[in-house]
Structures are given as C-alpha cells and as structure tokens.
Amino acid sequence: MKLDPETSPTVYEQLRAQGLSRRGFLQFCTSMTTLLALPAGAAAAIETALKTRARPSVIWISIQECTGCSESLLRSFEPTLEGLILDQFSLDYHHVLQAAAGRAAETARDTAIARNRGKYVLVVDGGIPLGADGAMSTTGGRSGIDILRSAAEGAALIIAVGTCATYGGIPAASPNPSQATGTASALQELRDSGQVKAPIVNVPGCPPVPEVLTGVIVNFIAFGKPPPLDDLLRPLPFFGRTVHDDCPRLPFYNDGLFAKAFDDEGARKGYCLKDLGCKGPVTFNGCTTIRWNQRTGFPMQAGHGCIGCSQPGFWDRKGGFYGRIF
Ligand code: SF4
Ligand code: SF4
Description:
The protein has a five-stranded parallel beta sheet with strand order 2-1-3-7-9, with helices on both faces. A two-stranded antiparallel sheet has the order 4-8. The protein has 16 helices and nine strands.
C-alpha cells in the first residue's frame, strides 16, 4: 500500500521549513530505525521516504475517551508528536486540537475523508459503545460507531491508540453498561465483508507510549505497511517484550529479593515490586526501553509497580492494582 505523491510538502521539507537542521533530521531517522528494531541500513530508507513522499493525511476521531491519550501523545520527545502530527503529518481532523467547532468541524472531517479517500491514516481513541445503538457516545448527532464505520471504509491504515480504543478499556470495565468494545472488534463485520480493507494497528496503554504512534506512522510512510504485529495487533518492535524483561529491578527479582512495603528498606534499595502487585512480567509494552517523560523514567524506576495498562481487561484484573498475581 503506497501513499500517492501529492503537491503538498514532504515531511522533510516541512521539518526543514520549521528550522530543524539536517543533522537533527538524520538523528530522528536513526532514532526511528532503532525504535522500530530495523537494521541500521533502514535509516537510509526512512530518510529517503520522508524526503520524497507526501505527508499522509491524518484523521483522528475520539469516541468514548477521557482525552488522556491525546494529552500524552502531545508530549512525545523531539521532534514532538505535536510537531509531527500537526505540521508534518498534516492532521486534518482532531476533536480536541482543531480550531473548528460544531457544524464546521463535522464538515471538515467529512471533507477530509472524501478528499483523501483510500490514502489517509485514521487514528481512533476511546472505546466504541455498541449498546443502545451507539447512542451513549454521539458527536454532531451521529453515534461513535457510525462515524467510525464511515471513516474506516476509506482509510489506508487504522491506528487504535490507547487501551480504550484497542480493547474497550475503562469504558468496558465490568459491568460495561455501554457495551463498549475496541476498534478492531467494532469493525469486525465490515472487515469480514471487505468493506474495511485497511490494516488495524493497536497501540494500547493508559495512556499509550507516545513514540509508538510516531513509529507506526513513520514505518507506514517508509514501507507502505505497518510494522509486524502480534496476535493482539500490537506492533512487535514496541510490544515484543514485557516491561519486566528490561526492568532495572530484575536482578533483585532473580535473586528473590522483594520489597514488602513501598517505604521499606527493600524498596529503598530497589528490590523487586512483585509482592506489591507489579504486573510487569505479564505486560507487554515499551515503557522500560523507550521510557516516559522525554525518556527520563518509568513507574518501576520511580518506585511503583506496573499496573498492566497495555493488557486487555487490566482494570478488572482480580486483586486490583496492588494484588499479587503470582
Ligand atoms: S518490579 Fe515488576 S517489572 Fe520490575 S522486576 Fe519486579 S516484577 Fe518485574
Ligand atoms: S509500566 Fe505498566 S502500567 Fe505503567 S505505563 Fe507501562 S505498561 Fe502501563
């Protein structure tokens, strides 16, 4: 699946126009190559693609969500996702970020879908409520599931961001009164019938790690397809390992040294947080390798266990966030 070249600037041209140095651009290409677990030579392919291919149109729809995913994604490190999405990737519609409101906003979305049919990246955040004919989340008088279906039919790539958009998340927590579900599940019928042909990539997390979305879109621009996915449609370069695999407390885990309270001597020495409910060993995500907040840290480094936010049903896990699971 290739993006058609258009007259709009390439990502590189836009970055340069914004003052990014050539050196900074090359560093970005190298950083993406590393994050995507590609061989070193792939940096040249990414560089060429970002220099020559038109920016993809990005249409971002929000359904049953708290805006936390957008808030998190806007804080990715340099080049910021805000810069990438808003300026380089050409964000054509976003509930939260766009200036337009009301009927003008709905028209902007429909125009962007029609103009870029077959070529745009559709980003979805929020769960999709199917109960009451979708009436529990509406925008401009249309249900979320109706908007999702019509937007998905013309997409070249669909990315569900956040645990709500991927598995239903907190809106789907028991007893799930709105019958919320994830994007792939909500679109299953249209995918089976061939009306939705675009691949779906799940980027779970509550919130998701910002750089993963950037990486998935860069991979799509460079290679015309998403990165390899696991059986939950998560991109393997970011979800191929558990947060436990790269946790600095792992040596203590291996030695059987566990903190028993968040303020005990063991916790201060960096002992493993398993007995305090850490879900790291069963949670696939890139937190410990990419790290949060401009790559400064992650929960276990700060002294709190992983709550497993990128796994299906994390909210309803028996024992809650602090119950031991093994
Ligand atoms: S703190 Fe959690 S992620 Fe780290 S080693 Fe212990 S169980 Fe694994
Ligand atoms: S460490 Fe665990 S709970 Fe925290 S963001 Fe990563 S996957 Fe989610």
